[in-house]
Amino acid sequence: MAEENQQGIKVTDRRMFTDTGELREGFEPEENESPEPEVAAEREAAPEPISRPEPVAASAREPQAQPVADPQVPPAGPRDAPEGYSAGPRQPQFLDLVAMLAEPVALFLGDATMPGQEPMEDLDRARMHIDLLGLLEGKCQGNLDEQESAILGDLVYRLRLRYVEKKG
Fold first, then answer.
1. Long-range contacts of 133-137 (CB under 8 A, 24+ apart)
2. Distance in angstroms (rounded) separating the CA atoms of residues 99 and 88
3. 155 near 133, Cβ under 8 Å?
4. HEC profile for 114-128?
């Protein structure tokens, strides 16, 4: 009974080329049709961009709820600064950021003091700032010019050495 229900399986090779790389019988080479007419037709069928409505005077608007900030949307950049805001006499540079992160290290290592205060030593905070500079160095690798890379690398190296000296 099992032999009666079995059917033969037929395998058909539908590949275009033989094992030797020749075109199989029944296949004709396709004509070189350029896809440009299809692209042009798609462009013609695409809707036109929606134009923005004219701004409405603030007095004519209805009060609206404040939008909730989307956590996936990055914060406004320097081009989106509010009117009247200026970045100051000069734009901050990369080395300004490095200096801001490195400045407290001397205080936390006890090498520098604030006027009128005794030296303080907080090696945990010093290490945090040194590690932040090391993180910055790793993340910026290959994206800095030679001078910035050399200054940052040397600074991180020297601060790590000073930390190890203080740690004992």
1. 133/98, 133/101, 133/102, 133/159, 134/160, 136/97, 136/98, 136/101
2. 18
3. yes
4. CCCCCCCCCHHHHHH
Beta partners for residue 17, in sequence order: 23
Query: pLDDT (tens digit, 9 = 90+) per residue, 114-149?
Result: 888 888 899 999 999 999 999 999 999 999 999 999
Q: Name the one residue in this structure whose structure tokens are 């030679």.
A: 146
Q: 42: left (phi > 0), else alpha (psi -120 to 50), else beta?
A: alpha
Identify whether the C-beta of residue 102 lies closer than 8 Å to the C-beta of residue 129: yes
Q: Please state the domain extents for the chain.
A: 94-167
Q: What share of the chain is helix, strand, coil (3-state, %, to 5)?
A: 45, 0, 55
Give Cα 118 distance to the centre of its chain.
Answer: 43
The predicted model scores a pTM of 0.49
Contact 159, 112 (CB under 8 A): no
